[in-house]
Design a protein that fits this description.
The protein has about 80 residues and is of the alpha+beta class. It has one domain: Orthogonal Bundle (Arc Repressor Mutant, subunit A), CATH 1.10.10. The protein is about 50% helix and about 20% strand. The chain is built from 3 helices and 4 strands, in the order αββαββα. It has a 4-stranded antiparallel beta sheet. β1 and β2 form a beta hairpin.
């Protein structure tokens, strides 16, 4: 895959994570909210999103947390594509 296609795949996966996600109480910081989504996507794409600090994934869970940076980008992608 060329770089442009890889970036589009990452962007669209981030958008799907955002659209299918929900807000809940943080497990690490009581009183704070996090935006969580199920991680049913290619591991290499999830790893790339984590490297870009757009999500946090935890190896022992079936969901990821979309970071504030990821939420901002996902909202921009939603405006762009929808």
């Amino acid at each position: 895959m060329n770089r442009g296609v890889k970036e589009n795949v990452k962007d669209l996966n981030l958008l799907l994570l955002y659209l299918s996600g929900w807000e809940e109480d943080s497990r690490r910081s009581p009183g704070e909210k996090v935006f969580r989504s199920w991680k049913g996507y290619l591991f290499e794409v999830l790893d790339a999103l984590e490297e870009g600090e757009l999500i946090e994934q935890f190896r022992n869970t079936k969901s990821v947390v979309i970071t504030p940076k990821g939420l901002e980008k996902a909202r921009g992608l939603k405006e762009r594509f929808m």
